[in-house]
Amino acid sequence: MKKYFLFGCAVLLAGCSHGQLSSLPKIQDNNAAEVIIIRENQFWGGGVTAIVSLDNQDIIAIRAGDHSKIKLKAGQHAIAVRDQGGFSSEVHDSVLLDCIDKNKYYLKMWKGISSRFNIKVVPETEGEELVKDTNFLELKQ
After folding, report:
1. In this structure, are residues 49 and 13 in contact, taking their beta carbons and an 8 Å threshold?
2. What's the gap between Cα 77 and its chain centre?
């Protein structure tokens, strides 16, 4: 019985993890595009960790009220979001980002009333305001 209890606790704790999930592309170029991924600090869905993928590879588990920065080479990149929990790895929403060197892009994520995550590109002014109200989640690149 004790083994099952400990296993259950481990599963629950694993479901709460956040941070970097895999290595990011190594970018040495100072001209690379910068992408800031922001998870709004909201009550609705705030307890659910979101998984962000870059070009079909899971890269970040991010909680409500966090933001992260990644550098990307110029070109087209797919950024998607889904729930960490549940029985499905179905993507909830995604954006196709046409990155240009030295440009900065802000992506806002939130949990909708439909219980699905949403993601969209927002203007720099809105992105900067969102960053002020969130915690920085550092990633190694």
Report:
1. no
2. 14
Which residues pair with residue 109 across a beta bridge? 39, 119
Could you list the pLDDT tens digit for every one of the 141 residues in the chain?
Answer: 554 444 444 444 444 567 888 888 788 778 899 999 999 887 766 678 999 999 999 999 999 999 999 999 999 999 999 987 655 677 899 999 999 999 999 999 998 877 789 999 999 999 999 999 999 998 887
What pTM was computed for the model?
A: 0.82
Pick the CATH number of 18-136 from 3.40.50.2000, 2.60.40.2890, 1.10.10.350, 3.30.200.20: 2.60.40.2890
First to last CA, the chain: 43
d(CA 134, CA 46): 13
- The set of residues, in sequence order, having a beta carbon less than 8 Å from that of 24 and lying 6+ positions away, is 54, 59, 70, 139, 140, 141
DSSP annotation of 74: S
